[in-house]
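A reminder from the course coordinator: this example appears on the midterm review sheet, so study it carefully.

Given structure:
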């Protein structure tokens, strides 16, 4: 599964780096059309998380993953066949649906096979995935120096082939045990009780709502920092890609070491407090970057990038552990699917939140960081109440004990 993550993210890095340019220069779409395509396909992709998770409680997980990888490959290749806007929208939506569903199913697979070591497994997976993103992005950057239509076509083809390779690798993976699917015999009749429904679990839905806010660090690096720097009179415009590289390097170097601080459910919950401080610091540093010259701007923007990257890594550990610990074993797929809505929804809400902070100025960034910090504190209390009523999915053991 780690090889699958590397191959998958390398291919995704190829396409993510050039998708807007491809739709603009190769298929000839306008800025409004590109924006609408991204918004609509992203909205349809949101459905993939809960639907994929729910189906995974009923069907073999590896077969579903293979099917979704094939769907993503076909969707990518289909983009090469047309410049019709309606068809491009349909193919992009299919790819987005497959991407969000596969993301949840991969997480579910990891939760089932890694057991008490799931936090460390997740940390290693994120490290490998970030390395894949970097490799794909660097390859795309090199290909763009050619600047021809053929170069764009090869990058999109490479993205599709990465999904085919991921599907072939998944064939070699064993099917993990699932508490949601049991085999009934004449001696052991099928259970009659219905599995828990996450849509009726108000506590879990409240937790997912807070997660949507905590995932906003993603929008900071994809939209917030580049736009803030671009509209700054003091910050060097070349700083934006350097901060993206810094973010990537920090995740690769520090995600696994930091994971040991959240190796149990209780420890993961405790990390919400330093996570709150990291978000608050990131917002304040962004605000202070507008108070001086080029050196001051560079210093505080770098501080903000470091703070938001630390927040990203801490939240990845916390979110992984708590989303699984709060989910009943018999409906783990359905619950993780609903949790996947948080990250999907953030893709729509995040750009709006950071652009609002930019429009408001330094005060907006302070409020942005403070809002997420307060949400961390609220989730800390909310999760305590939920865990007191929910049986943990695994015994609370540490990674070092295994």
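Designed residues:
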């Amino acid at each position: 599964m780690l090889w699958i993550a590397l191959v998958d993210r390398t291919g995704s890095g190829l396409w993510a780096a050039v998708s807007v340019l491809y739709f603009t220069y190769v298929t000839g779409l306008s800025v409004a059309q590109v924006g609408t395509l991204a918004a609509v396909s992203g909205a349809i992709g949101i459905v993939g998380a809960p639907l994929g998770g729910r189906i995974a409680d009923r069907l073999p997980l590896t077969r579903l993953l293979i099917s979704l990888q094939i769907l993503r490959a076909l969707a990518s290749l289909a983009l090469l066949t047309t410049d019709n806007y309606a068809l491009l929208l349909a193919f992009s939506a299919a790819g987005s649906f497959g991407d969000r569903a596969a993301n949840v199913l991969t997480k579910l697979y990891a939760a089932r096979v890694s057991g008490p070591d799931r936090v460390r497994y997740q940390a290693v997976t994120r490290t490998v995935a970030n390395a894949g993103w970097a490799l794909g992005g660097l390859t795309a950057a090199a290909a763009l120096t050619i600047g021809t239509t053929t170069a764009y076509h090869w990058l999109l083809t490479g993205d599709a082939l990465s999904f085919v390779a991921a599907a072939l690798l998944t064939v070699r993976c064993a099917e993990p045990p699932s508490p949601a699917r049991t085999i009934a015999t004449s001696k052991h009749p099928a259970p009659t009780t219905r599995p828990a429904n996450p849509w009726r679990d108000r506590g879990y839905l409240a937790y997912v709502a807070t997660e949507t806010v905590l995932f906003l660090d993603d929008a900071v690096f994809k939209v917030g920092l580049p736009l803030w720097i671009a509209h700054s009179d003091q910050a060097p415009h070349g700083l934006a890609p350097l901060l993206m590289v810094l973010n990537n390097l920090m995740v690769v170097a520090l995600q696994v070491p930091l994971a040991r601080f959240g190796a149990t459910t209780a420890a993961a919950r405790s990390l919400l407090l330093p996570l709150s401080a990291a978000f608050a610091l990131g917002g304040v540093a962004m605000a202070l970057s507008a108070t001086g010259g080029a050196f001051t701007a560079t210093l505080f923007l770098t501080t903000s990038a470091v703070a938001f990257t630390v927040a990203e890594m801490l939240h990845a550990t916390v979110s992984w552990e708590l989303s699984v610990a709060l989910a009943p074993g018999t409906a783990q797929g359905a619950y993780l699917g609903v949790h996947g809505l948080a990250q999907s929804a953030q893709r729509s809400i995040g750009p709006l939140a950071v652009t609002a902070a930019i429009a408001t100025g330094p005060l907006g960034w302070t409020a942005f960081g403070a809002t997420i910090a307060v949400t961390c504190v609220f989730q800390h209390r909310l999760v305590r109440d939920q865990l007191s009523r929910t049986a943990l999915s695994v015994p609370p053991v540490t990674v070092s004990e295994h």
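The chain is about 75% helix and 0% strand. Confidence is low (pLDDT under 50) at residues 182-186, 391-402.
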